[in-house]
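Design a sequence for this backbone.
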């Protein structure tokens, strides 16, 4: 009775393998449970998301007139739509046209912006000040259908998606709508930045101060003149002054 029971190495290995298999089985069960919980959570989220979208549609139907007529309310509604993945800039054949007519709202606004750009191109060469555009569009629409700068930006964004060559440029705190077929070069953009801080004008001397060669300055100025983006005051003392009308207006 005093003798001890010995365990062979083979038996010890068997016990170790069994424990490892048990741990592996437990880990697999935990992983499967985690996957099931994740799937259930995802499914619940989808259900809640779909329910919220339905509530959004009901809200839109009952507030259609207010959304189309009140710019502040329209902004809040668009922000709410984006949180659930509804794009306010869908085509007129999509969600907005069917539900609200808002797709048509931005399509019509886009046409009015393009018309304004075309009418004023002789004056500004296709570089239209945002506030000037807003005032002209508002005048054409009348006081019953007020629009905001945010509405103009959304409509221009929609036009850009459609490839109409219209886009918004920002220079410091100044926004302008560019409606020329060619992209502005980096040098042209720099010249406009200078004009933004100088009452909408620049000279060849201003560009030369950037360390540009005479040829580089000449190329930039010639392109501005060719595209009709600038007015030239050749009677100015010292050297000709180039005005960007939209920036000079502000």
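Sequence:
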């Amino acid at each position: 009775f005093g003798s001890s029971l010995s365990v062979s190495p083979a038996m010890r290995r068997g016990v170790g393998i069994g424990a490892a298999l048990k741990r592996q089985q437990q880990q697999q069960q935990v992983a499967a449970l985690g996957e099931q919980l994740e799937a259930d959570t995802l499914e619940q989220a989808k259900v809640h998301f779909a329910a919220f979208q339905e509530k959004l549609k009901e809200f839109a139907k009952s507030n259609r007139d207010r959304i189309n007529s009140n710019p502040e309310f329209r902004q809040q509604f668009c922000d709410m739509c984006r949180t659930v993945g509804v794009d306010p800039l869908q085509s007129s054949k999509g969600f907005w046209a069917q539900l609200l007519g808002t797709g048509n709202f931005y399509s019509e606004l886009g046409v009015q912006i393009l018309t304004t750009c075309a009418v004023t191109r002789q004056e500004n060469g296709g570089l239209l000040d945002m506030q000037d555009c807003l005032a002209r569009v508002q005048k054409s629409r009348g006081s019953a259908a007020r629009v905001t700068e945010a509405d103009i930006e959304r409509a221009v964004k929609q036009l850009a998606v459609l490839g109409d060559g219209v886009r918004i440029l920002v220079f410091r705190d100044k926004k302008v709508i560019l409606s020329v077929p060619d992209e502005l070069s980096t040098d042209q953009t720099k010249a406009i930045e200078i004009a933004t801080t100088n009452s909408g004008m620049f000279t060849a001397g201003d560009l030369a101060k950037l360390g540009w060669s005479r040829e580089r300055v000449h190329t930039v100025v010639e392109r501005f003149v060719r595209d009709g983006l600038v007015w030239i005051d050749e009677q100015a003392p010292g050297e000709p002054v180039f005005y960007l009308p939209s920036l000079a207006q502000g």
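The radius of gyration is 32 Å.
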